[in-house]
Queue: 4 jobs
Job 1
Amino acid sequence: RRSSDLNSLQLLVDALRAFAAERQWEQFHTPKNLACALSVEVAELLEHFQWMNEAQSQALTDSKKAEVSAEAADVFLYLLQLCDKLDIDLVAAARAKMQVNAEKYPTALARGTAAKYTDLSPE
C-alpha cells in the first residue's frame, strides 16, 4: 500500500507541475511565495473554526465539512508544491519527524498530557 500511496503522491505532484506550467505560473512559484500562500491557506482553514466551541468543531455540518475539505486541500497542495520546489521528500521528512517526536514524547511521560516535551518529567 505504501508504494501505491507514494505513486499517487508523485502523480499529484506531477499534475501540480503540469497545472502551473500550462498557466506559466512557475515564475511565481518560488519557495518564499509558496510558503506565503501556504500560510494564507492555513489561516483560511482556521477561519472556519474561529469562534466555535470544541463540540461545534467536532460536529461540522456537511456543507461546513466540504468548505473545510477544500481549504485542507489548498494547504496540502501548496505544501506539496513547496516541497517539490525544495526537493524535499515530504513522506520521508514526516517519518523522520515522527521519530523525533517519539523520542521527545516518550509514551510513559506523555500519555494523557498536552504538556510540551520540555515540561515532561518522570515524576
Job 2
Amino acid sequence: MSLVINIYYTGEGDNALEFAREMISSGIVDRVREEEGNLGYNYFIPMDDENTVLLVDKWKNKEALDIHHKSSMMDEIAKLRNKYKLSMRVEMFTEVEK
C-alpha cells in the first residue's frame, strides 16, 4: 500500500511559487524522485489560493518515507522553507490498490 502526502506551502506574495521553483532548479526535486521508494513528487497551484503551492508526494511504503525523512535533503528543504517564510499543512493518505 503506497502513501500519498499532500503538503500545502503557504506564504506571502509569490514566496510559495518561488520556493517550488528553487526546489526544482536546485536539483532537490530530482534527487527526491531518484530515492528508492519514491513514486511521485509534483507541485500544483491551487486555483483559489494564489499564496499556496501544493506538493503531492507519493511513496511505496512508510519505510521509504521514513528513510527520506532522515536524509540530508530534509535539512535543505527546511532551509528553503525558512528562506521563503512558508508555513505548511500536511495531509497523509493510504492509497488502496485494486
Job 3
Amino acid sequence: MIRAILACDSRGGIGKDGALPWPHNRKDLAHFQKLTSGCTVVMGRGTWEGKGMPKPLPNRHNVVVTSNPDYLAPGADVISEDILEHLSLLAKSNTVFVIGGSVLINQFMDDIHFFHLTRISGAYNCDVFINLDELEEKFVKIDSVKIDDSTQFETYISRTLHDIPFTTEL
C-alpha cells in the first residue's frame, strides 16, 4: 500500500521558501520518524533539496522523483519515468510513504491508500499547499489525536478502501 505523510497549517500550507514554515515541532518530527523508519520514503526533487532536509533520511530507503533522468541524489534512488509503476513495485516489498511535495501528493492522490496528516495550528504564510477539500473528498478520517494546543495527528483512509476490512497498523 502507498501512504502519504505530511504536516500542514490551518490553510493546507506545507512549506515556505523550501522549508517548513512553523517553529520546530519535535512531536511531529518524532511521529514522522516513528512511522517512516525502516520504510521507503518517496519525495520530489524540491523536497529532497529542501532547507534542513537530511540527505538521505536515515534508516529509510530514499527515493527522489524528478523529470531529469540524469539527476544525482547521493544516498537515494532516482525515478524519472513510470513513477506509479515504480511506487507499486516498491509497495509490494515495503511500506511506501510519499512525503512531499505538493506536486507529487496531488499527482498520486488517487493512488494513496492511507494519509497521515499532522495539523499545525495557525497560518504561516506558506507558498506551497495541499488541497484540504480534495483530501476530505477522497479520504475518510479514521483517527484523530490532539497532541497539544498546536499539534494534532490525523489518519485518513482512501474512500475506495473504506468499506474493505483493514488494519491501521504498519
Job 4
Amino acid sequence: AVETFALLRAVAARLGATIGATRVITDAGWMHHDRQIGTTGVSVSPDLYIAFGVAGASQHTGGLGSPKHVVRVNTDHSCPMTAMADLGLVTDAHALLTELADRLGVSVA
C-alpha cells in the first residue's frame, strides 16, 4: 500500500494533479489530515475526481461536493463510489498506476 501511494504521488505530480486522501491514508500518516476529504475533513469540488481504490464510504463522498466528472478505479464493481462515477474501471489501482507511470515516463525513487 505504501508503494501504491508513492506511485500515486509520482503520477499526480507528473500530471499536475492534487491528491486528496481518505481517513485510512491520514490515519496511516501518509498524508496530513488537512488533505482528508470527507465529512470530518475538507470539501472539494474538482473538475475531475479519480478515486483510486476508494470504495466510497458516505463519510468520504460527503466531502466531494459536486465534481464535474468522477472516475473510480476499484476491483469491486459494486462499491458505493460506482453510483457517483461517470466511468468505472474494474481493475487493480496499483496495476493501473504502474501502467500510467510507465506511459508517462515516471519513476518512483
